[in-house]
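FAQ
Q: What does a multi-component entry look like?
A: The components come first, one per line:
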Amino acid sequence: MADELKLYAASGSPFVFRVELAFILKGVTYKTVEENIKNKSADLLKYNPVYKQVPVLVHNGNPIPESLVIIEYIDDVWKGYPILPQDPYEKSVVRFWAKFIDSTCILAILKVFGSNGAEHAIAEAHKQLQVVENKLAVEGNKFFGGDNINLIDIAASFIAYWLGMLEEGTGIKFVPKDKFPKITEWADNFLKVEVVKDVLPPRVIPPKAQLLAFFKQRFGDS
Amino acid sequence: MADELKLYAASGSPFVFRVELAFILKGVTYKTVEENIKNKSADLLKYNPVYKQVPVLVHNGNPIPESLVIIEYIDDVWKGYPILPQDPYEKSVVRFWAKFIDSTCILAILKVFGSNGAEHAIAEAHKQLQVVENKLAVEGNKFFGGDNINLIDIAASFIAYWLGMLEEGTGIKFVPKDKFPKITEWADNFLKVEVVKDVLPPRVIPPKAQLLAFFKQRFGDS
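Then the predicted structure of the entire assembly, as tokens:
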């Protein structure tokens, strides 16, 4: 039986992009099921009852939610391009940094938009971005993965592409390029990678009021 | 060369406990380096410059921070007791739930203490605990891992043991047993497991003011 691979997706989502990029790197073809985020399908709610969010990968009927969990699964099932290293120690380092960027760092960024640019939120986001900046500076590589992108680059793709759109859309510009030259250089390199260019969604800036309302609801102080 | 395994730890930490339990399940011996959380060692700051927290495992000089990252490493390196399943799909399910409990669920609980029992924080914690309750009810197993504990049980150990101490210490009792009978039953089963009993730290209730100040600083609304 041929594998049946369905990816529940939503155009423009940075989290869906991560999974699509992983599939392209592996050379695996899949079918996309486009979700309407304002009117989610019964299938999406059944496959991801906890978070009710895309992406969800359904492989031969087995649902897997959460982008980084999906990518570890893809790397476990399909050989070819290594998204995580094989060596257990190197693998743990990659898991640590992907998790740091996915949770601590991106969350701090989202809270800037959620708080409509509050000073304490910007200070926290700068602090976490500085951790990433220092890592790139110390290692001096083209990508987090060295000469080629790996799970950390994929996790950080939000910073390379979506962050700029959100800054422009909300008018909250808080990541000066001269403060984070290594991140800027990494983002330039990342966005030049052929497979990345193939999968990146179009640059679309939603209206400011809509963006701010969305982020306040999701990432504002509760 | 024999493996050199040093675990930077702090008595009573639920996150250190997770790693100790994983080592005991594997039958691997290690050396503990006790940290003074109020005066952290230069080694701890060097090995975990991002979070500056225990646990950190140092294996033949290679540092690994973050309890769940450490446990995946332990499961990758040492065979024997399987902490994660071998099958990629089952493994992804375990990763999903361990991450949900570690981040979403426990974070919601910690915010109850951080907000000194605010109503909205209690409602959110109840909502996330209900997700866990439903999972146990649907599956009807003794443990999240089935007949034996796995990574999900280890991630959830905070709920089985530390949550009750914090409720008692702070006086904020918000998890009624009759509302979560399956979680209560699971916790009873978990705390009866011989290896769990061997590693659990003593029941110690810090003073209320100290607890509330700690949680407000770490998990209060910012």
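Q: Is there any commentary attached?
A: Sometimes. For this entry: The mean pLDDT of chain B is 96.
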